[in-house]
Homoserine O-acetyltransferase (Jeotgalicoccus nanhaiensis), 307 residues
Amino acid sequence: MPIKIIEGLPVRTKLQQEQVYTIEASRAITQDIRPLKILILNLMPLKEKTELQLLRLLGNSPLQIDVEFLHMSTHKSKNTPTSHLQKFYKTHQEVKDEYFDGMIVTGAPVEKFNFEQVGYIDELKEITDWAQTHVFSRFYICWGAQFALNHYYNIEKLMLSEKLFGVFGYQNIKPEHPYVRGFDDIYQVPQSRHTRIDYEALNGIPDLDILTAHPDFGPDIITSKNQRDLFIFGHLEYDRKTLKDEYDRDAKSGLNTAVPLNYYPDDKPSENPKFQWRSHGHLLFNNWLNETYQNTLYDLEQLHNLK
């Protein structure tokens, strides 16, 4: 089934080339089905790249999905034209009276700041609290996951001595869990971050299940016991060349960023990067959509009655 998007969204052409099925809103309203409503809070600076990455994964599902994009009204984007935001994005004030089956919160390039130093942190807290009664299932990625764990459980993030940058094998430690159903025992995950969460504090939270982990780099996928909150620190949504783009950008800026590990053949940046995580990216998103579809309420306005 296709994903429903706003008329004219530029990345639709690329999705069609990849045979990812989309349907524009004017056609979708003629169909008598109950689609999943998914809200994407896009905190990344290059919003169109992130749109493509997430829609590519959401579109690989037998479910029809209605997607809306959200941006922060208290932050002015320097890398995405205002016209794009005005045409294809909404603010929290515009959706605060709506209900959604799922919400994805992306990462953001602000991890070196304390949470309270982030200019839009109050608005993000407001959206996160609102989602407790207006969204059935929440999916937080990278810095978004670090923020949510801090906001929900007061788990702090800690600076790493050097950037965790590359593709690493993580262990599937709860293969029976529906979010990692079908995962290999060891699966590859792109990582690109300067921080980690406080693992000791995480282990002290009985409401959380750690689903996958690395012996040196700690957890990657975590979920709440009721499975309504999913957290991932890696980037299974990344394209083949996303880490390359980050490395090339840093090198051009004169930063002493190490070559991403286990990414290029023989760790040589002149080679074409290996795409080692694509299947597990599709699997995780499909598992999340399936669990959301199986468990969400038909009448989303009844979310207020859930605890």
